[in-house]
Fold these 4 entries.
Entry 1:
Amino acid sequence: MDSENFLLVVAIIAVLISALGLGFTYFNINNFEQNRLTGFAISQISSNTENSAPQINNLTNKILVCEDSSLSYFFNSSDANGDNLSSSIAGFSKVYTQDRRLNFTAYSTEIYSGLLDKSNMGVHDLTLVISDSQVADSRKLNIEVIEINHAPNITYPGVQTIQLGENNLVFNKPVLASDLESGNQNSDNLTFSILNTKLFNITSNGLIYFIINSSFIGVHNLAVCVMDSGLKNVHKNISFCGQDGIRLSSCVNFSITITPENGAPEILSYYPLMINVSVASSMSFYIRKQDPDGTIPDVYWYLDDELKSINSDSYIYQADCGAITKILKVVISDGLLNVSRTWTLNTNNSVCKTGIGETEICIPRFACDEWNQCNLLEEQLKLTEIEKSCKNANWSWQNCGFQKRNCIDINNCNKSVVEESRDCFYTINPNCLDGIKNCHKGKCEILVDCGGPCTQCSTCSDGIMNQNEEGVDCGGQCLVNCIEIPEKQNSLFVEIINSKISIVIICISATLLIWWWVNKVVHQFMLKKLFRAKKKIF
């Protein structure tokens, strides 16, 4: 390698080394600026003996739930000190939490709801807090309720009978239908059709019509179907709900009988035979029917004038608890003429059942609203348990209070509202600066003077150096330790010196490159001049 090329290689290598040096220096200076604020980095789990904050462990930040279903989602939390933990969730009034201790340090919490309907659709931003009453951990999450498509609902039109010769040349029968997404029969969003016949027509809004003549005599069994328009905006995750959001349909079967002279339907037999019946707990009722015109008549079962069942030849009565009397009536109809049978039911049942009809097991699940604002316990209320609690807490009568909240059964086994009461520390004007954990403005504080109606409580996951933390979300009462960044990484002076050296090397290298290029140009010029001189000689 000649001296010129050797000089070029040396200059290039020097430039590359200097560039790497500057990059490393820039990286270290940036790290210095970032770490200089605290001087700490996050390490592993701390072994602090003071009260550590609880920790939420495996909570996702997005939960999907389908319309017409209930939410049930579990996650775990822990507390290194084994403190009692409680959870709260805010941002969606239909969602609640329930905590269960797993062992000394671990808890399982369920986020749950009742049935979520169309009014709950969309994304709900929530804040969940786990607290040991002194310190807390929190997470942001959202629950999205996905809209699903519902099949149309068709009102059963009932069996129809038409008797000829009554100036009824045209028959009209509206079919009533409704759909949660597409509206009713007058919305122009439903499609009607009649199956299994060419004799009858149906309009776009569900009106069955035809011109009557003697050639139509007989029983015509029809199926009327209604199709909706599907969802206008299909959610990208609708497959999570087991459907695709496209059009759905429903059908209903009934019959139209056309006869020259109509005969009333008959009850051929029935059970029990007695009119007055004593029912201990449950009893079955049967009928056998016919119609002289060949019609299959409708069957309607009423209990105290409330319709309980349609088109079944049997009915099971489940007695309520206590001594009561009820009237059971079955009506047989061909659309024009009816026949009925009535029983008087005398019950003396000491066992309460869950409902009338087939026995169903309904397990209630109560969910409660926020506690009301604390009220001063007045002497005339005589809430003994509250008085005892105030005495045990060494509260004076001026501070002995009580508060209430309402709880409902989200499974609808029990329609009544259950009221709960508890003791509380009473103050005339509860606020976010009184040093008391209390409830006001319709919400309850999570810790003393924070959360609920007040500003958010400081936690070990909020990305802020607060509480008694030694770094951002580490040290102090947080569960993770902070480790000190080595001093040599904090020396900005060394980094600046290194950067200046690299700049000097680059300048020298650039000078060498320029010198090499000038030398190369001069050398080529001299070669060309020498070549011309030799050419003239020869």
Entry 2:
Amino acid sequence: MKHLFKKGAFPEEFWPISLSEAITAESLAYMDKTAGYLKPLDTDANAEYCVGVCMDEVPVNIYGTDVTPNPPQLRARVCRIGQFSFKATAGDSYESGDKVFIGADEQTITSTVGGNTHSVGYVSGEQDTIATATATDRVLVCVRAPYPATPMN
């Protein structure tokens, strides 16, 4: 997790996972209520169910046997609130307090509203303004996961 910057983050919670869904550490994750486990955040529509930043690497089971939901259910650590570093979307600008949305993948954010309606956080006050981001820029983002209203553990 060489790029992860976790500053003043709240304690982690443990969320159910499946070995059929690979999740990379330091990725935004959402709860798939139908499947009953975490998945990498992939769309703005799923951002409504964002639970925070996954702190564990969840590899895919190469043997093809999924152990969920059979007990004991596997779980990954997720941090729901805190400051984290994400890849910037090239061409976007980032200024303190700007809302950010899911970008091209679960480790990238964008400041372009476009059709996005579910913010995953906002640019930290500790982040210097980036007038035009490059693909190598990183942005310090304050994440406060909207789902669920009551944390689970």
Entry 3:
Amino acid sequence: MNRSNHPPFFDLASLPEDERIEIIGNQVMGGELTVGIYVDDEPGKADRYIEKIQARFPGIEVIGRGAGMVKGTILIRLRKRRVVEEAHA
């Protein structure tokens, strides 16, 4: 994966949805980057993606969701869940 100052862009539109979920999840879990995905603003589609991603990759958290910069899309921002270690007395 490219770890330069300019993260990669992947056009996954031609792939089946479950394959997209797998690629997205692997990208998020593979590093410390925030990953943004655009989905069509069809009713329930963003929720479905979030549910599938978190079911397959429980270590992923949604850190943002809102209107995408492209009309008719929703931007979902994901990152690997941060583990907070408790101080031991």
Entry 4:
Amino acid sequence: MLLTIICLVIVFLLGRLACRFFIGSNVSATDLFLVSIIVGLVIMSFFVFILAIIIGNLSAAVYSFTVVGAIISIVPLRDFIIRAGKLKGHAIAGTISCLKKIKWFAVLFIGLMFILFIDLFKKTLSFDKWGYWAANEGIGDIPFHMNSVSYFIYNNPFALENPIYSGTSMAYHFMVDFLSACFYVLNKNYIFSFHLPTIILGLVSIILLYSIISKIIKQTYIRICAFLIFFLGSGVGFLRIFNDNNIPSQKGISEFFNYILHLPYSLGQFFVTQYPDQNILWGTFLTTSFMHQRAFIFGLPVVLTCITIIYSLSKNSTDIKGFYLLGFLAGVLPLVQIYSFIAVFIIVFAFLIASLIVKKKDLVFGTLKSLALSIIVALPSFIFLFSVEKSAGIRLRLGWMMGSFTGVNLNPQWKIHIFEWLDFIWLNSGLLLPLLFAAILYIFLAKKIRKEKDIFILSLVFSSLLLWLLLNTVQLQTWDFDNYKIYAYFILLGAMLAGFFFDKLSLKWKIIPVIILTSFLTASGVVIVLSHSSIADPKPAGIYNENDMAIAEWIIKETLPSDRILTAPDNINPVSSLAGRPVILGHFMWVWPHGLDWGERYGEIQKMYQSPGTSAGLFKKYDITYVYMKDKERGELKADEKFFDENFPVVFTLNNVKIYKIDIRQENEEYYFSENIW
């Protein structure tokens, strides 16, 4: 644990050194502290990643970073100590002065958000004497990320094979899982290492987002409302409650609230839309993205850092060093989260448009440098991410989740689909869109705002419009639902602009419409979040018990990282999630959204289990050395267990689990099972 603490100090000092050089004079002390943590973690993850590729060993790379980082950190540590010494005499007076300036209501709000975040986050993955537990909403995502973390931990030499699609590269954003593996090297505590980077990044994101909102919104209650609209904003699913016939039968306030927190139906679902019976897609950013989408929890703080830099550059365009840090951070995002890269690229491009309109040449050239640098830095990541053959998930279509709406002139049912799309958008965004467009009109029409020529606000306007255009014209992945990762950033900018609009309005008693609108936009989200919290005390799902851990322990000790174990494609698989061994095929909802061919491999796995005697060639094709046998293999795949028992040695057995050893020999271009395997 001591090594982990030392590493975190080094991470902060390295981040501080970089941030002080590039943007130190343009940001507040609070912002500098926050972005130093984020930039430090980016530096650590990519330094260790590149070094691990070069030397082929993750542990050696982590310890090398710690040693090199400690040496480099002497400079910022010495500077920090000297500054602290100079301020020592003014410490008490400075502290009192600082405390007087603090808006304690805002501090209390952020503290409550911290408590809520940690309460929700600790439920995503927990561990006790029974084993590993996951929140029901994360039963798909969490085991998926455990695959990556365990793969990085237990595979030596270091490689980048896809743990859910063996024989191919890990062609998706994985850096937050890699970071967890790095911390595991230092402390050997899986659950702690799994959560450590995401907890740090989550808490920092909460403060940094509030800081960004505070830069453009002066009134505290409007800042809080904008913050809540982003994190808790949801669709109009709460209206279902008003049609619930069970509500009148609830006796007393306590029973009523208990029913609301345990509704027999969901207020946020995700299914393909069908007019007029659309399903509500959007839950809340906090529960849909921030809790279980681990890549998002690394991507968001990097995006917020980029927005912070853009704001500082808009106020001080003479110090151009910030453009280089902006370009670098944008460039590393594809391996952090590719959707965040898209969002940042659009935001930076929008900043370029705003700079051109206001005729700020220094900002125009600086932004062009950032865009060019981001492309150069991102290019190797894109080459790697698209090195694997995938189905064409990216396509044009008009209207998010409107796969059938291919064009007004080409589709005779276009009128129906327009209503379908409008209804879908209303169900998911409620009053956010009208509010955003009112804010944009106000920004362009109000004389006072136009005279200010605020480049930052203009860039937010153009960013939101471009994100909305992208969201509704381009399907970015095989599953159109995944565009919600772009929608999350649209909500972020929309909430900020809506707050800016109300902050600037000279309207008596405007607190009333602000609170009413915020309540409408967050009502579904509040119910959803509280139903996930300890207040409702939802029961988690057991994913791996002590038997699964015993299986994984045997695999780690008795097999090589290069061994391939045949298993059924399942989301709960100790072979990949706990032992870190790549499997031929992961769960359908992991593989298909990435554009990988699921059907062919599934058929071949089925054949190997059902007809192993005639499948030696397939066993050789995938270099299978062990076969895993459990309920799903026996049931769904209809495995010929009798053949396996009679022809292959059982090298491990525990309750209903068997593992067989397989060996293949070749004769005259034909493959056979070795007879002397026993």
